Structures are given as structure tokens and as C-alpha cells.
Amino acid sequence: MSKSGVNNFSTFSLVLTLLGAFILLFIIAPLLGMIVNTPFKDVAATTADSQVLSSIWLSIWVAMLTSILFAFPAIPLAYILARYDFPFKSVINGIIDLPVVIPHSVVGIALLGLIAGDGLVGKSLDVFGVRLIGTPFAIALAMAFVSLPFLINSARDGFIQVPVRLEQAALSLGATPFQVFFTISLPLAWRNILSGLVMMFARGMSEFGAVVIVAYHPMVASVMIYDRFTAFGLKYSRPAAFIFLVVSLIVFILLRFISRKR
Amino acid sequence: MLVVDQISKHFKLFSLREITFKVSQGDYFMFLGPSGSGKSLLLQIIAGLVKPDSGRILFNGIDIAKSPAGKRNVGILFQDLALFPHLSVFDNIAYPLKLRKYSSFAVKQRVVELAEQFSISHILNQGVTSLSGGEKQRVALARTLAFNPPILLLDEPLSAIDSQLHLDLGVLLRSINRTGTTIIHVTHNYQEAISLASKVGVLHNGQLVQVGEPVEVFQNPRSEFVANFTGAKNFYRVKGVRATPDGLIYAELPFGETIAFYANPAYSNGFVCFPEESVVLSTQAENQSAINVFSGSVIDIFAQRFGYEVVIDCGFKVFALITKESLEKLKISPGIKLYAAVKANAVRFIPEI
Considering only CB atoms, which chain A residues are within 8 Å of B99? Predict the structure, then answer.
């Protein structure tokens, strides 16, 4: 490790390197341990387990759909936050970050209160004979709640980077504000929005705490792994966890790829 | 055709106050002012990008002060050009045409036509980020003119480029103006104003302090800002610029006198100015090393912070700044005859483009 302009500082560099290595090891070791301790034949057998596959698939498609559907109102909100000044703007920015700091089981309880039969939304839907608890829709709500900040913040940063001058130029060339948004602002902020979408998807897909409270069934991957662990123990839950880890890593690599390709 | 009537816009630290002026079709109207005088703000208000607090903007008799920017049909060229980085040169120029629902054939035809006019045909398929400064300028200008706006607003278009491009673009702007496009141009560079403008408006601290023909404004500056620009009130239009083998240039003042100076003789018309301090006064014509000697009688003497300003009528007014000692030694008083000498290299020539 060398840093320009800093000479004869080898003890310092050594301490930095050791501390850094400790953190890296801390992240890698458990995952590596799990991979090493999971026999390949168990993984192969588990990939044929329909419950595992369907729960992973459920995690993926619900998280994906959630990200796409919530993007429609979330991206305009990000644009507002990037472009306009109004009273209590910082309060609104704070509200958007709230889901990051609220314990996820608390989120689950709060959402359950909303959609349960005696809750505000639950009661009105009950009139039509619609129940949300235990449906992919409830899962989507839980996923969206905890993952929206990632999309909104990333999209807002993207819009902030688009010079206002370009929007003014488009306006003066004859564009309506809608045309400016779709032909200038959105394309120029697109990479940030896309990486926000992938982050939201990844965060939603891996959510456990909020989802398990509003929908134990149908089981998403994280709930299924927890279910196997409590019912059958560590050894039995490992192959499923291994497969879900691989899926998450693929998403992660995709995310890095998108955000790097500037 | 464009009347700006009592436009005001107030901010916490700055206000544009009751700006009123009239621009006729085909004018090259130049707003001159230091940075912070409100000139860019004024352009943005005319373009519809900033809403004024009060006042009217009449375009051919119709108040457009409240119509959206996109409906005003006013082209604006920003100082930073504002090319769309995610679009190619072609798509940048085609942008206003596509908004106006031109057929793809008509879009292509117009873009190709503009590309030829602005010598950018060879870069149509390139991205805009890799272009040179001059190319970017021409692309931005082509984009702004693509929809044939009757009024073109220019926000310091010449400030970010080197002097050769400066001249090229100046010539281009003048030719656009000559084909009928009304231009409103803001700048802090008085040389630009002198070279290009058919009318000059001087902005200072958010107020329009003077409007008029360039010569009128520079000869009778009503603000210290303009007075400091020329450094002198000795400002005259010249024609018939001709070079001599010894490098001196001769030109005709409007009063029949000839003035000599050093300059690039590529232009036949323009303006000359020389600082008041450079005028040497004497009571006799001989013993003058200066080439330009004008004779006339003193009409006014004003006490200045440093010395005296003497105004001499030589058929045209010459202003000289002299010390108290010189004033006393030459016994200068109103009515006496004097010779005003100006060295050729104190004369500044600004071509009319």
C-alpha cells in the first residue's frame, strides 16, 4: 500500500492494512464458511426442491414488480425533491429516509395494522371481499416500504446532476414541461434511476422482517430459509441459503456493472 | 415589434427595475453592463424562463409576458450553450423541429441545410461532448435558429472563445441579423457592442440607464460604467479606412478630417477612440511630434478630480484632460484657439463588422 506524498509511514500503513483486512475477513468469512460447509450434492438436490424454487421465484418477481410499479410515483417525487424548493422540504427528505432507520419488524406491525381486517385499508377492501394479508400484494407493500428510499435517493441525485440550464434550453426550443422531463431530464438521470431501481429490487428481494409479519405464506426466499432453520436446523437450511446467496450475488454484480458503466 | 414595458423583478439582494425599451424588426440591440447588472436576467425574462413581478412584453402588439417559454417563438443562445449531452449533433439541431412535429424528411432537410450554413456537416453524427469550442457554438446556434425564431437572444455568446473565433462568430451573427432576424445580445464587452450593435442599452444595477445608437451612447456616456469603457469621450465613427506602406492606417472622420492610427486594415468602416489623457494641447501648431493635430477653440473647462477637462471644438468635440499647471501655463480660457495633438498609437480602432 502506498500513498503519494506520504513517506516513512510504514507502521501507519501496516495498522491500516491490518484493520482493513479484519473487516474484509469479517464479511467474507461467514459467507465462505457457509459455501464450504454446504455439500454440493445437497445444493444440487435442493435446486430440484419445488418449494425452494418457487419461494426464490416469488421473491424475485414480487420485488421486481414492486420496484417497477412504485417507480411511477417515486421518480416524479425524486424530481420534485431535486428541482423545487418549498417549505418543509427537509422534513419530506427525512420522511423518505425513515424506512431505513425503523426496525423492519416494526414496519411489518405497522403495515399489518393498516391492511388487517380492522385496519383502514383492510376494512375498506373487506367490503369487496378482498383480503391482503398473506398475499403477494402484502409482500409487495412490505418490500416497497423498506426499499423505496434507495430508489428515491438515487433518482434524486441523478436529477440534481442534470443542469437546470439544459431544461431551460429545451423549454426555449419549444418543449412543454412534460416533454422536457421525458426527453431531457429522464434520459440524463437514467443511469442513477436504473441503479436505484436495482438497489430497490435487491433490498426488497432480501427483506425478511417486515414480510414475515404481513405474509408468512406464500413464502418468499428469506422466510423459507428462516422456516427451514427453525423447523429443521442449520444443516438443512444451508443449501437453500446457498442458492439464495448466489441469486443475490448475481443481482449485486449486475448493480455494480450498471453503476460503473458511466 | 418587441416592446418591453416596465418590467420589474425583485429578489432579496437584487432587483430589475422598470425596464422599458423598444426593439424594431431587424435591430441588433446590444445590452451592455457589468456582471451583476441584470442583463442575463432580462434575457431570461424575455425568453419566458423567469417570470417578471410586473410589466408587459409586447410582441407585435400581443402581451407574451405570461405565455410559457415554449410558445414564445424566441430563440435563446446561452453562454454555456446548453447542448444536450445525450444527443448527437444531428439530434440536438433536430430537437426543436421534432417538437414542432416536422416529418422526418423535413427534419432531415432542415438540419442538413443548417449544417451547411454553419459548416458543421461533417460532425452531424458525432456526440456533442467531444466537439471543439467553435463547433459547439455553431451547433448551438444552428439548434436555436432551426425553428426560425424572429427574435434571437444571445447571452454573452462571444465571451468563452478565443479572438479569432470571436471575429468569425461576430461575422456570422451579423449575417444572421442582416437576413432579418432581430437580435438582442447582452455583453459586458463594449468592443462587441461597438462592432455589432445598431442600438445599445446600458444596464447598471438593474436599471436601464441609457439607450441609443452606439456613437451617441459612447460619446455622451450617462454612466461611469460606459465612460470607463471607452476611457474617453473621444469616440468617433470613421470610414474609408486605408493602409499605407509604412504601416499607418488612415481613415476619415465624419467631419472631413483624417485620423491616423495603427490597426488591422481588414475593415473599411469602424470607430476610433482615444483617451482624454492622451490629448496634448498647445498654442502653436509646430513642434508637434504627433501625426494627428486638430485645431479648434476652447468651449468648456471643467474641474476634475485630477486636473481639468478641456473641451475643444475642432468641428467635432475633442476632450482633453490636463493638469492645473498646464492649464495655467497655456492660459487656457473659453474661446482661445488651441491645437490638440493625438499620437497614432494612442488611437484605438474598433472595426464595424
Answer: 173-175, 179
